[in-house]
Amino acid sequence: MRQSQAAVLERYRVLDGEFATEPYETGWATEARWFVRVLESSTPDTKLVLTTQVSPDGLHWCDAECPPQVAAGEGMVSWPVREFGQWLRIRGSVVGADQSAKVLIYLTLKS
Amino acid sequence: MGSPTTDANLAAHLRRAMLDADPALSRYNPLSRILVFDKFDTGTHGWTELIGNHDGEGNLDTVDDHMRDFRPPQLSSCTFFDVGTHGAMTGNYALKVATRPLTGHTAVAIRRLTMAKKGRVQFETYFTYKAEAASAENQAASQAGAGDWDGNIHPSEQQFGAFTVATDICDDRGERYHTVVRYQNTDLDNRFTRRWMYPVVPEPTPREHLEGKAKLGATDDFTAPNPQDWRSIGEPQSFCYNEVPTKVNWHYLRWVIDTEARKNIELQVNDRVYDMRDVPVPVYEERYDSLDNLLNFYVSARTHTGVRNFLFLDSVLVSVDW
């Protein structure tokens, strides 16, 4: 049977401006999928731009080959990632001064 | 063990011989029944992030501030910037408990069991601990605790705060208590203390918070928030940190408690054995429902500076004399 794991990387965290999630080790996994739930947003169309990043060492990061995702207002967005090497994180930003979004961020992994 | 002249002795010799024939088990010293044997090459084995309690609607805003961000444990290949993959003691993967780079942040992984009987319980593991290596992004080299490199002791060693192994136990009458051992590598001013410690008060619980009896901040020490409530055990103990944050040596830990007597018994860490029979076990004054025969183990890492701290477990074995 294949291994799988779901990790909650941010829990009810209120984001504004630029942010990055904590590094998460994924070297054992073949496939990953992010789920970002926006629980509350400062306006109905507050935009959250989410870029997947990869790292060989958990210290130095670059953007993965998948396009940035945009969440607008409340709801959930999800996207898959493969061939990501040892570490994954999201680098992101809440667009606009005085804008914020309260989120749950899940990373799900499968061997 | 004496000579195999009685059935009991013969059985004990046979059992040890069978353990010794298994390379994974031969480095452990289990009591008569192995309850769990967690090798992290095959998953997380029930070790999960600890979270505080929440309301009937699943609103996680009702989780206590200090119990909502204990971080998900990771299956780690112990990979570092200088050599790549280090690997675990056996196989490739260890369980990694990682803090945020935030002074006072604690990461906690928990294993949830119950007791089929009271008696001796033994927790064994091979572990190591590390502070995160420096980078331009994390600025670890200029965070509190960093000092000069003398070619032997690396500045990052003083940036590891503490790790803890503990239980959460409740008997069938609702009487609840924790047994706790903590290795404090540095004090809150990032100076080496390198000692084993225990708290003399029980951990504040979500129910106590709801009743207005306890309120902790997000980075308070949830096991026992007041530093004055901690005592040391025996003489200080140094470990083979091995000079840099990227070399991993594994250490043996064996801790015995007695759930019948509600007492600590003994802690062995590498070549040291600490008699813990006089270490008190504080009990909650109130009784708890819904926790009958609770037997949880947790491990935590706590940073005393703005640098991520990591606790790695190669494997865990919990055994009992039931």
Can you characterise this structure?
The complex is a heterodimer of chains A (about 110) and B (about 325). Chain A is mainly beta and about 110 residues long. Chain A has no helices and ten strands. The radius of gyration of chain A is 14 Å and the shape is globular. The termini of chain A are close together. The mean pLDDT of chain B is about 95. Chain B has two helices and 18 strands. Chain B is globular, with a radius of gyration of 20 Å. By secondary structure, chain B is mainly beta. The interface of A and B includes residues 11, 22, 23 and 59 of A.
Summing up helix and strand content along with how strands pair, one would put the structural category of chain B as mainly beta
- Tell me how many strands of chain A there are: 10
Largest sheet of chain A: 6 strands, antiparallel
* Largest beta-sheet details of chain B: 8 strands, antiparallel
Largest interface: A-B, 21 and 30 residues
Blueprint (SSEs and pairs):
The complex is a heterodimer of chains A (111) and B (322).
Chain A: E1 4-15, E2 18-20, E3 24-25, E4 31-41, E5 47-55, E6 62-63, E7 69-72, E8 75-82, E9 87-94, E10 101-110
Antiparallel strand pairs in A: 1-10, 2-9, 3-9, 4-8, 4-10, 5-6, 5-7, 5-9
Chain B: H1 7-20, E1 33-39, E2 48-49, E3 74-76, E4 79-80, E5 84-85, E6 94-98, E7 106-114, E8 120-131, E9 162-170, E10 176-177, E11 180-186, E12 192-199, H2 206-210, E13 230-233, E14 251-258, E15 263-269, E16 272-275, E17 294-302, E18 309-320
Antiparallel strand pairs in B: 1-18, 2-7, 3-6, 4-5, 6-18, 7-17, 8-14, 8-18, 9-10, 9-11, 9-17, 11-12, 12-13, 14-15, 15-16
In short:
The complex is a heterodimer of chains A (111) and B (322). Helices cover 0% and strands 62% of the residues of chain A.
Summary tags:
heterodimer, A: 111 residues, mainly beta, 4-stranded antiparallel sheet, 0% helix, B: 322 residues, 8-stranded antiparallel sheet
